[in-house]
């Protein structure tokens, strides 16, 4: 038999049929829903008088447009409230499992899904959100879809898709002290570019990946869409199984044993070929930060903003000029001279317990710099609860941070948590696009430790200089 | 719902920037709108409009030459980022039916197909030639059955659609209907085998 990659195995085991034109009808095991990408999907069902094909294959939660100052929907604004209420009404009518806002399990889809064991190795999982790559950390074929596809998945549990090419990203060696999964992800996007993996499914391999916790693997897979990859994967292993065991929706007893036996067959076979291979020398990576308006605009924290006059390619020169102009930065400016107004710690990239711990380690016994606002938004109610059990919230509150309720919050600025024009933010989220955190807002993507260091110093700073 | 697309004749506006993401095409704050009406007003809102709400005269779509264009020529990486289908709805609502570029965001490309928005991929050299023609205000003629884009009768690029894609575009077929009408027996049959192989993926009631 020809050796297969993990991606091949996941794909092949879900092909319902080849359609003879290069496309495939692919079975979709699971579907995560949130309030923003599904209203029109339900309209498509209702217009045809359809019910979901398998209600139990779906799980819905409000996250994008929910208030994080309270659990009172109106605090996020009338439109946001209407959107969440629409989701509640839609799932009620269609019998779709739902986690309400005041439930401790509520959280960002990509934090909540794994926590509940809804995400499992070997499955296909769709969600109307591009960061569905996150679930690939478990060896699940997770991919983002649009609202039409959300409707099709509910109606038919299948999609017409074209197979991606495969790219292996091999992280060679182990990261240095104080270098995080976020730094590796930023380094990768800068190496291959924001379109570098467009059309590809990435599989991450190497010692560094094997040594990573599930949370770190999720961070890396999460950011893969910023390099253009619709799918990112890590082969499941003992770390995966230990993390999933006894999760509420994970299989139990005999079925668990059967499932694990199957999951052990998933890793890429010896000798399987990828369409492209990239090797990243992990030991040489330092804390990284973005300076511009694309996630590929990355420099080391001790580096400088680029100088367009020193760029030969005219197209790139023009792009850098525009980005610097939007970001309000001087060519060649030192990163450590950049002052921030706001710090946001949270999102599906870095809103998990280990991320909050990393931030707390820096913030412990320190104060947020005067004039800087720092908000900390846990990725889920369970993350919040666990953080409070460890007393992390006290560290944050004593430092002068705001400790919020879970949700997407300032990652996407749909719930009233947003930057004002010209404001500059050190953010642990995943997108520094123009206006992403509020019209005219300026985003620098960083790790949780670096965000915390920015809160304390009021500037972008290498967090290693501040370790407790 | 999907408007059929067989031929388009129009000037082509050029948006040459690299990596125009779906947040730029359709800013997130408008995602709170539930109805699909009026999405054209949100298209490129932060670039097309000035902070005071007036049109930004520097934005290509606001130039007299490009009023009512139905074709866009875009830089690499157009449609990267968020999966929001609103980016496609807004383009179509604005009147854009064809986008020519070197490559597109994967999810955006999937959404485009479902809404009768045709994406044409060309190599960088052809791309540069098309841009210079578009900038002089030449009329482009896109013919889906023929798979050609011509200017003054001269072919500037070709593209290939599969038979099912072509039928979907020219008839305005909706993918959900196609799947429901033709694929359900296959899906049900697969489901049975899948359940026997991975029973843990199905609820007790389903097993
Ligand atoms: S946290 Fe940000 S990136 Fe993640 S799902 Fe929410 S809005 Fe999307």
In short:
Chain A is an alpha/beta fold and 468 residues long.
Structural features, described:
The complex is a heterodimer of chains A (468) and B (207). Chain A has 468 residues and is an alpha/beta fold. Chain A has 16 helices and 18 strands. Chain A has helices spanning 6-12, 39-47, 78-94, 109-116, 147-156, 181-192, 207-211, 214-223, 238-244, 253-263, 314-327, 347-350, 353-363, 381-389, 392-399, 448-457, and strands at 15-18, 24-27, 30-33, 58-60, 124-127, 141-144, 158-161, 165-172, 200-205, 231-234, 276-281, 288-290, 298-300, 342-345, 373-376, 402-403, 424-427, 442-445. In chain A, the strands form 5 sheets. In chain A, strands 16-15-14-17-18 form a 5-stranded parallel β-sheet. A 4-stranded parallel β-sheet of chain A has the order 4-3-5-6. In chain A, strand 8, helix 6 (181-192) and strand 9 form a beta-alpha-beta unit. Chain A is globular, with a radius of gyration of 21 Å. The termini of chain A are far apart. Chain B is α/β, with parallel strands linked by helices and 207 residues long. Chain B has a single domain, classed as Aconitase, domain 4 (Alpha-Beta Barrel). Chain B contains 8 helices and 7 strands, in the order βααβαβαβαβββααα. Chain B has helices at 22-25, 45-48, 86-94, 106-114, 124-135, 163-171, 175-182, 184-197; strands at residues 7-15, 71-74, 98-101, 118-121, 139-143, 148-151, 154-158. In chain B, strands 4-3-2-1-5-6-7 form a 7-stranded mixed β-sheet, with helices on both faces. The radius of gyration of chain B is 20 Å and the shape is globular. Chains A and B meet through helix 2, helix 3, helix 5, strand 7 and helix 10 of A and helix 4, helix 6, helix 7 and helix 8 of B. Bound molecules: iron/sulfur cluster. Iron/sulfur cluster (SF4) binds at residues 64, 108-110, 129, 131, 347-348, 408, 411-412, 429-430 of chain A. Chain B: InterPro entries: 3-IsopropMal_deHydase_ssu, Aconitase/3IPM_dehydase_swvl, AconitaseA/IPMdHydase_ssu_swvl, IPMI_Swivel, LeuD.
């Amino acid at each position: 038999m020809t050796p297969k990659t993990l991606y091949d195995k996941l794909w092949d085991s879900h092909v319902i049929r080849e359609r003879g034109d290069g496309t495939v009808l692919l079975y979709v095991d699971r579907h995560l829903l949130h309030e923003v990408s599904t209203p029109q999907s339900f309209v498509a069902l209702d217009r045809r008088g359809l019910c979901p094909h398998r209600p139990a294959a779906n799980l819905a939660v409000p996250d994008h447009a929910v208030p994080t100052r309270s659990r009172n929907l109106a605090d996020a604004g009338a439109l946001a409230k209407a959107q969440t209420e629409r989701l509640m009404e839609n799932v009620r009518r269609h019998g779709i499992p739902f986690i309400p806002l005041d439930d401790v399990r509520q959280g960002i889809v990509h934090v909540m899904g794994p926590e509940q064991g809804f995400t499992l190795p070997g499955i296909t999982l769709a969600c109307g959100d591009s960061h569905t790559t996150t679930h690939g950390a478990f060896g699940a074929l997770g991919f983002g879809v649009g609202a039409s596809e959300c409707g099709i998945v509910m109606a038919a549990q299948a999609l017409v898709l074209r197979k991606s090419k495969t790219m292996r990203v091999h992280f060679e060696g182990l990261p240095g002290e104080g270098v995080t999964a976020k730094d590796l992800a930023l380094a990768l996007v800068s190496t291959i570019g924001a379109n570098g993996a467009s059309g590809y499914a990435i599989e991450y391999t190497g010692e560094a990946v094997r040594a990573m916790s599930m949370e770190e693997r999720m961070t890396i897979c999460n950011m893969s869409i910023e390099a253009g990859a619709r799918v990112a994967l890590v082969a499941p292993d003992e770390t995966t199984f230990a993390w999933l065991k006894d999760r509420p929706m994970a299989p139990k007893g005999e079925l668990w044993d059967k499932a694990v036996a199957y999951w052990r067959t998933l890793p890429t076979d010896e000798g399987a070929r990828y369409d492209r291979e990239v090797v990243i020398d992990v030991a040489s990576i330092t804390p990284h930060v973005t300076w511009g308006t694309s996630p590929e605009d990355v420099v080391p924290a001790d580096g400088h903003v680029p100088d367009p006059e020193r760029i030969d390619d005219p197209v790139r020169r023009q792009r850098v000029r525009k980005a610097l102009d939007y970001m309000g930065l001087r060519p060649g400016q030192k990163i450590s001279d950049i002052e921030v107004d706001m710090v946001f710690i949270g999102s599906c990239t870095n809103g998990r317990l280990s991320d909050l711990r990393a931030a707390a380690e820096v913030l412990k016994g320190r104060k947020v710099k005067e004039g800087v606002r720092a908000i900390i938004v846990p990725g889920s109610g369970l993350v919040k609860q666990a953080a409070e059990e460890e007393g992390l919230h006290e560290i944050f509150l004593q430092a002068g941070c705001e400790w919020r309720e879970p949700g997407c919050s300032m990652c996407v600025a749909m719930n009233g948590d947003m930057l004002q024009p010209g404001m500059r933010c050190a953010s642990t989220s995943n997108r520094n696009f123009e206006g992403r955190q509020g019209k005219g807002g300026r985003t620098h993507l960083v790790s949780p430790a670096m965000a915390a260091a920015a809160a304390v110093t009021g500037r972008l700073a290498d967090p290693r200089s501040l370790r407790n | 719902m999907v408007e059929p697309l067989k031929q388009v004749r129009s000037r082509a506006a050029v948006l040459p920037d690299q990596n125009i993401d779906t947040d730029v095409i359709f800013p997130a704050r408008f995602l709170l709108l539930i109805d699909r009406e009026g999405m054209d007003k949100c298209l490129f809102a932060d670039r097309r409009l000035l902070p005071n709400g007036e049109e930004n005269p520097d934005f290509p779509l606001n130039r007299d030459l490009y009023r009512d264009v139905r074709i866009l020529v875009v830089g690499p990486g157009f449609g990267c980022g968020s999966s929001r289908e609103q980016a496609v709805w807004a383009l179509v609502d604005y009147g854009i039916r064809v986008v020519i570029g070197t490559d597109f965001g994967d999810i955006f490309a999937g959404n485009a197909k479902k809404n009768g928005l045709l994406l044409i991929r060309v190599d960088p050299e052809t791309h540069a030639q098309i841009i210079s023609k578009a900038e002089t205000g030449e009329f482009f003629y896109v013919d889906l059955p023929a798979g050609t884009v011509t200017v003054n009768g001269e072919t500037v690029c070709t593209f290939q659609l599969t038979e099912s894609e072509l039928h979907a575009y020219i008839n305005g077929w909706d993918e959900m209907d196609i799947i429901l009408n033709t694929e359900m027996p296959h899906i049900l049959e697969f489901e049975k085998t899948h359940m026997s192989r991975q029973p843990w993926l199905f609820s007790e009631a389903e097993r």
